[in-house]
Amino acid sequence: MRMPAEGEWVLLLHRTGDKYLVRVEDREFQSSMGVLKLGELRKLQFGQTLKSHLGEEFLVLPPSLPDFFEKLKRAPQVVLPKDAAQVVAHTGVGPGDVVVDGGTGSGWLAIFLGNLVRPDGRVYTYEIREEFARVAEENIRKVGLEKIVTVKRRDIYQGIDEMEVDLVSLDVPEPHRVVAHAEKALKVGGYLVAFTPCVETLQQLYQALRGGRFAELKTIECLVREILVRPGATRPSTEMIAHTSYLTFARRI
Amino acid sequence: MRMPAEGEWVLLLHRTGDKYLVRVEDREFQSSMGVLKLGELRKLQFGQTLKSHLGEEFLVLPPSLPDFFEKLKRAPQVVLPKDAAQVVAHTGVGPGDVVVDGGTGSGWLAIFLGNLVRPDGRVYTYEIREEFARVAEENIRKVGLEKIVTVKRRDIYQGIDEMEVDLVSLDVPEPHRVVAHAEKALKVGGYLVAFTPCVETLQQLYQALRGGRFAELKTIECLVREILVRPGATRPSTEMIAHTSYLTFARRI
Amino acid sequence: MRMPAEGEWVLLLHRTGDKYLVRVEDREFQSSMGVLKLGELRKLQFGQTLKSHLGEEFLVLPPSLPDFFEKLKRAPQVVLPKDAAQVVAHTGVGPGDVVVDGGTGSGWLAIFLGNLVRPDGRVYTYEIREEFARVAEENIRKVGLEKIVTVKRRDIYQGIDEMEVDLVSLDVPEPHRVVAHAEKALKVGGYLVAFTPCVETLQQLYQALRGGRFAELKTIECLVREILVRPGATRPSTEMIAHTSYLTFARRI
Amino acid sequence: MRMPAEGEWVLLLHRTGDKYLVRVEDREFQSSMGVLKLGELRKLQFGQTLKSHLGEEFLVLPPSLPDFFEKLKRAPQVVLPKDAAQVVAHTGVGPGDVVVDGGTGSGWLAIFLGNLVRPDGRVYTYEIREEFARVAEENIRKVGLEKIVTVKRRDIYQGIDEMEVDLVSLDVPEPHRVVAHAEKALKVGGYLVAFTPCVETLQQLYQALRGGRFAELKTIECLVREILVRPGATRPSTEMIAHTSYLTFARRI
């Protein structure tokens, strides 16, 4: 296994499940299991362990994208991984695709999609609130996708600059106001997906989609329930998220 | 828009939603809306329309991966897109990853993953039943992923050849028999995912995982419900798939 | 155990799960397991068995209400037991209550409620379609609730005759048109419940309820999934009913 | 409307949804909306209002069973109304039935069933923990079902005293230990229902039921999701209870 580079993000995983995302730098880090000297990471390979001053061992791992997601700065409302993943199932978005993403927020969805379209695809994400745009750019750099994902300080209700786009993804309050722009931006056969928490928004969106060059309209909701598998006590978790957003898909024709 | 190449797979989409996956070749094709001369596709660009002998127009599109999935030869039990997509959410599998897939079946899951790891990643899918291996290879060629996805006539219960693997995905009757092999094959920080319809298999799998070098064990089920958005009559679909498989994730430490 | 009376409805249950609802009378009955002479029921007590001409044994049981429900003549759209039961949970409807039921259909819901308000309560169920009213009356007699449940050939959109009612239950296309009538008919503290498949009906209903003397408005949906518990193969059923109706509750103040 | 009797439980409902369960007695009660003199209830009829010292009006209502349920002393784990109601759907339990209930806890389920079997049925509920038995008896008196529901300080694992029972309901850690007793106690055609949170308990229960005189074995889980119907913002609630218990039904043959 290789060694982490200076300044690289590294996951520290304790056998209890506690985990931390830290950088290789000269710094002491206060974990729940004692102080960790992050400078010592320079002498370690991934797969080896870093000891706290209390002797507790943390496994040193290259972070996966889900690791980053747990630690990114979040906007209050955010598309969840369970829902973002359904976009892969319904649109086949993948390497090389060009994506326009409306309503950057914390950049979470743009990063999720950016990771999938690497190395030749691009994600252009539109945000008019400067404070969100800045948080998103920081998150994108942290994950190392700054060459793939671009934050644009533009109002997606006013138009989309890109053409021949494979996917337009919308997490904005009034997605029906973007339908005409998406129609122009999308390549024939390309997909639009919109995340909408309320039924009324859904109804407005359908009216706009039915008036445009879109087919294969479909709306789903996705529920994920955890199952706790314990010796002699296997059962579903007692709580779950009952609703985030409806997902609406449409295809440019 | 470009023109389809000779022999290339092309999607024909009618405004009623009827669709066909055909190749550019000298052949007459009997659709539900009249006979289509497929040779005429040579004169068309994507985005243009092909007329049947009844004058019905079909839009000519480059097929998306979901289009292929609907038309592939299927094995009786198959991981569904809604579930396959959760693997993206939980493991971050993406471009460049190396994946070992156990129990090829019709190759559907291997293709789904192969599409995501393009162009530098690879999927090695294990299958001992010759008839399935052959169907899978045919499906992989159809989708154009033959350089990414390799079908191996090997019993995954006997071992995994690959090393430093990012993801091991298991859709076999006894996934607990693959845990020790996956432990050797996976890189530290890599993920295992198993699809298991029954609770008893889940219990055996956890016993094996708890005895090995795995952490972050988690099991979920994913339910997707369609919402029918119609003027004045918006409501969930009356039927849904209530269960396919439990998805168990574990991480190599 | 007592013996069934002449003409009484009797449940015949085979160990395979096959079951029939028959009457004590001079008749031959063709079951899936051979011919049964129903006259022989006169010599049997409940709990004993009746043999077919092939020697197959059927257990003779007094039918439960769920047995009747499976065998009643049904209207195409019907409130399901899982949903009807939620009315008990949310309103506490029980012995002695007076219920007005709008949209009799096959009478199923009226019978369900009639069984619960016995012996001193009453259900008045409104139906304007003569063919449904007749089927409902037949079903009510079959179950033996003709003294409890009365079918009224009246349009509930035009008004409700009863006063000081404990519960108004609505399974009609436009429940908002009954809200003002229900307000007059219900006793203070009484409940209204409406079964509505579509969101738009729900929205109209809430507008009417908010304009009237109602409080504690609440809407739920109820999903029931079967679990198949088999040796070594315990798992949820692969299919389930994804939607019947939204249930809206409101309380007269 | 009648007047509440001295010492009777009365529901006070404010238009904000705040509600209190109080008795007619000489006492001052501190509500969230000011002090209420409960002695003044003697001069009021149900349907009239009681004013706090701040001038806030509370509607005076006869409490429904759900009102009582919200205010009863609860044991930590309790069968929820959504699940208890499914027993009505699957067994048809109703007026006149004799029920044996194992594991009284706070008495909630016994009260739910007691209310349904009134006035001629009976519920015998078994509890060995004295502190629970006392809380349950207090709750039963509060609801006014002391003539219908009897708490027995007996271990239901040791046996059931009653015979010709219509329903045995089990909310105990090891329901399989009660199956043989239930077989003796139940009348032919009667039902057993067991509430079990874990799959392993379910598997043991089925083994016992399959070894006994039971048919029509069925297990379900019931999920209830709230829908928030607000002008322009109709959507499901963001959280829900994902699991309480599996419900298993079996019928004595």
Brief characterization of the structure:
Chain A has 253 residues and is an alpha/beta fold. Helices cover 24% and strands 33% of the residues of chain A. The first copy, chain A, folds into two domains: 55 residues, Vcp-like ATPase, Chain A, domain 2 (Roll); 185 residues, Rossmann fold.
Structure keywords:
homotetramer; 253 residues; alpha/beta; Vcp-like ATPase, Chain A, domain 2; Rossmann fold; 2 domains; four-stranded antiparallel beta sheet; 15 strands
What does this 3D model show about the protein?
The structure is a homotetramer of 253-residue chains. In chain A, 24% of the residues lie in helices and 33% in strands. Chain A is an alpha/beta fold. The first copy, chain A, has 2 domains: 55 residues, Roll (Vcp-like ATPase, Chain A, domain 2); 185 residues, Vaccinia Virus protein VP39 (Rossmann fold). The longest helix of chain A has 14 residues. Chain A is globular, with a radius of gyration of 21 Å. The N and C termini of chain A lie far apart (48 Å). The model of chain A has no long low-confidence stretch (mean pLDDT 94). Chains in contact: A-B, A-D, B-C, C-D. At the A-B interface, helix 1, helix 2, strand 11, helix 6 and strand 12 of A face helix 1, helix 2, strand 11, helix 6 and strand 12 of B.
